[in-house]
Amino acid sequence: MDASIVDLRYKMNSVLKALNRRERVRILYHGKVKGEIVPAKEHLNLKTKNHPVFGMDKSGKETPDKIVALLRRGRYHDL
Predict the structure, then answer these.
(1) Predicted confidence band at 67 (pLDDT cuts at 50, 70, 90)?
(2) 3-class secondary structure for 10-77?
(3) Overall pTM > 0.70
């Protein structure tokens, strides 16, 4: 589906219906494509043991607290 900026403002209901039908919506501005709205992926019911991040460090050298602290450190790693 193609939608102009005016369509987004006044016909958002039809845009949302298109997304419910799993259609991509191209956003047009002065007839040129400026972006695209894609439908969200369905929620996956992953269990913790099946989650891709769980157990990513199989070496066991780092404790989970240490790994989280490393992930949460600042941009410039001011340690």
Answers:
(1) confident
(2) HCHHHHHHHHHCCCCEEEEECCEEEEEECCCCCCCCCCHHHCCCCCCCCCCCCCHHHHHHHHCCCCCC
(3) no
